[in-house]
Amino acid sequence: MIVSQLANRQTFFGRGSLNKLVPLLSEDPQPTLLFCANSFLQSEAWQKIKAELEPLLIGIEVVRHEASPEEIDGWVARWRERAARVVAIGGGSVLDAAKAFAAVSQHPLNTLRYLEKVGDTPISGNTLPVIAVPTTAGTGSEATQNAVVTDKADIKVKASLRHAHFVPHVAILDPDLLRGAPDHVLACCAIDAFTHLFEAYLSAKGNLFSRHAALSGLRAFLSAWPYLNDPGEQGDLAREQMMIASWQGGLSLSMAGLGVIHGIAGELGAIKDYHHGEVCGRLLLPFLQLLNDSENAQQQKLMDELAVALFPGFTLPPARMLASWLQDKAITPFWQDPPPLTQAEADWILTRANSKNALIEYSEAQLRFMLEQAFHIA
């Protein structure tokens, strides 16, 4: 049985839906803090709403990367008891930073005390209300219960603050915010959404309900993947579908969890600045090789059902066909020119990596195979 708060209280979807933000804030005036990236402050979208939005804000915090515990604690020290509501406009790092601030600002201790893997204190559901406006289609953070925090400097950990109440109260999904993004960003964010959906579909924690949600998102992904950078109507439709796929990926992972790809990617992200979606996409391809050779009956059954649902009349083995299709239809070959890892870094990652909620427990040799196929290790 799945018992959880999985959905936003309000979700606005469609091209131009960013225009809902100002009326939403105006009808319920509260001290509101904006989290965003510099790229948003330089965008046409910001210029359109700036004059109306700025008077409704008490301040703006710019998020430049995955937030560290120290950065979150700094924001909390600056805005505790001053901010009553948070708006987050940006990619996954911005949304996670805002969600983390909203939660920790309502707790007495510093961020590390509540963080999964390293914390010693349970976190309650107390949080400021968050309005999440994704400008990328990948993480699905606008629909998840967790806020990812990364410390690369000291304890080297990438982990979450997690509670059902941390799902943003409002999500505004405007596909027009994806227009003009570089091909590499579009593709790497999208393959992150795919990985969320795919791993949730194959999860040992999954059931008919969660797999149905994941399958719906995978259908949306397939319709969008080849056309994300198209400047015309086909591209507009694709960006709409990918925004849906990303949101459904957030719902799916909240219900069923993730698998071995994220079991490796999360540890790698604690020591390297590589784009998380690109890391997942690079690991996905060797994972599909392992999946093709899998003798696990449940994995085989789920892959057969997936192929029938997504690729009627398929002729190749499902995992091979999926790998081939993803590469053939990609708008950019994100898997080429693998970035480097030292042998010491690879060993560090592998001693900490795990299979998460995968249907089988992957061996150290299989984890190493995935990492060595995805990255240049020297």
UniProtKB/TrEMBL annotation:
<dbReference type="InterPro" id="IPR039697">
    <property type="entry name" value="Alcohol_dehydrogenase_Fe"/>
</dbReference>
<dbReference type="InterPro" id="IPR001670">
    <property type="entry name" value="ADH_Fe/GldA"/>
</dbReference>
<dbReference type="Pfam" id="PF00465">
    <property type="entry name" value="Fe-ADH"/>
</dbReference>
<dbReference type="Pfam" id="PF25137">
    <property type="entry name" value="ADH_Fe_C"/>
</dbReference>
<dbReference type="InterPro" id="IPR056798">
    <property type="entry name" value="ADH_Fe_C"/>
</dbReference>
<feature type="domain" description="Alcohol dehydrogenase iron-type/glycerol dehydrogenase GldA">
    <location>
        <begin position="9"/>
        <end position="175"/>
    </location>
</feature>
<protein>
    <submittedName>
        <fullName>Iron-containing alcohol dehydrogenase</fullName>
        <ecNumber>1.1.1.1</ecNumber>
    </submittedName>
</protein>
<comment type="similarity">
    <text>Belongs to the iron-containing alcohol dehydrogenase family.</text>
</comment>
<feature type="domain" description="Fe-containing alcohol dehydrogenase-like C-terminal">
    <location>
        <begin position="189"/>
        <end position="311"/>
    </location>
</feature>
<dbReference type="GO" id="GO:0004022">
    <property type="term" value="F:alcohol dehydrogenase (NAD+) activity"/>
</dbReference>
<keyword id="KW-0560">Oxidoreductase</keyword>
